[in-house]
Design brief:
Layout (H helix, E strand, L loop, with lengths): L8 E4 L5 H12 L3 E6 L2 H14 L4 E5 L5 H8 L7 E4 L14 H29 L2 E6 L12 H21 L4 E8 L5 H14 L3 H10 L9 H11 L11 E4 L9
Parallel strand pairs: 1-2, 1-4, 2-3, 4-5, 5-6, 6-7
Helix pairs in contact: 1-2, 1-8, 4-5, 6-7
């Protein structure tokens, strides 16, 4: 399928590995030029080199903390005004809410709610003017089915989801769409860290925790990040302009609801 986005420009946050990297790869395969961001310079530059080697696109790596004003300015000034924005940030650590102080909550909200909103704020008027924009926020399946050990993430990402629900419907008439992708368990460092915490709490090994989690998923496996990237790039396509303000759950069927 030709998504008709070849030659466009995208910013992909958290793109050195995991789901962000998969989204960057999928966009590059469609001919989209990239500015990719993460905090780890070495991993990010390696990702940029590998992506540009596989695809005939420009890939600019900007190692910066997207949760800061300076970091966002560095990313936004690194390339042309973006047609596509992929908001993505690592989730806060798991734990018990009784152990989290006010600073922990501020960090979670800054990374998983405020920073994505500020990135949207910086690019959306240009998208409206050019009458094309695709914004995809990578949130979490926990938005629909909260995970007890991920309370910081549950709260912050749900806040972003509520904000997007309103804004998406204000800009859709300009061919600018905002949607959210809600990953379930994918084979990423984030999942591995979560399984370590779950195993420790239950007195079992991370491998046992992984097996138990997979048995609870109808697909009986964890997701491959490449699958996630393909879903993301479809939402960024020219023909996805009628998909507005949606929360696409990609969890192997784990969520048991009808809607």
């Amino acid at each position: 399928m030709d998504l008709h986005i070849g030659g466009r420009h995208a910013i992909v946050c958290g793109a050195s590995k995991g789901l962000g990297r998969a989204c960057a790869e999928a966009l590059a395969a469609e001919g989209v030029h990239l500015v990719i961001n993460a905090r780890n310079r070495e991993a990010l530059e390696q990702a940029a080199a590998e992506i540009s080697m596989r695809h005939s696109v420009t890939v600019t790596a900007v190692a910066a903390d997207i949760t800061t004003v300076e970091g966002r300015e560095a990313v936004l000034s690194a390339g042309r005004a973006p047609d596509i924005l992929i908001n993505n940030a690592g989730g806060p650590p798991p734990g018990d809410f009784r152990d989290w102080n006010e600073e922990d909550w501020h960090k979670a909200l800054q990374a998983n709610m405020v920073a994505p909103i500020q990135m949207i704020r910086s690019v959306i008027d240009g998208m409206i003017e050019r009458r094309f924009g695709r914004i995809v926020n990578i949130t979490s399946g926990a938005v629909k089915a909260p995970i007890p050990t991920l309370g910081l993430s549950n709260g912050a990402r749900t806040g972003l989801t509520g904000f997007v629900a309103g804004l998406a419907r204000q800009v859709a008439e300009h061919n600018v769409t905002i949607n959210n992708l809600l990953p379930g368990p994918f084979e990423t460092d984030r999942l591995r860290n979560t399984l370590v915490a779950e195993g420790k709490a239950a007195g079992i090994t991370p491998e046992e925790a992984a097996h138990n989690r997979m048995q609870k998923t109808p697909s009986k496996r964890f997701g491959n990040p490449a699958e996630f990237g393909q879903a993301c790039v479809f939402l960024c396509g020219n023909n996805a302009g009628y998909i507005v303000g949606q929360n696409l759950l990609i969890d192997g069927g784990a969520y048991p609801g009808t809607l």
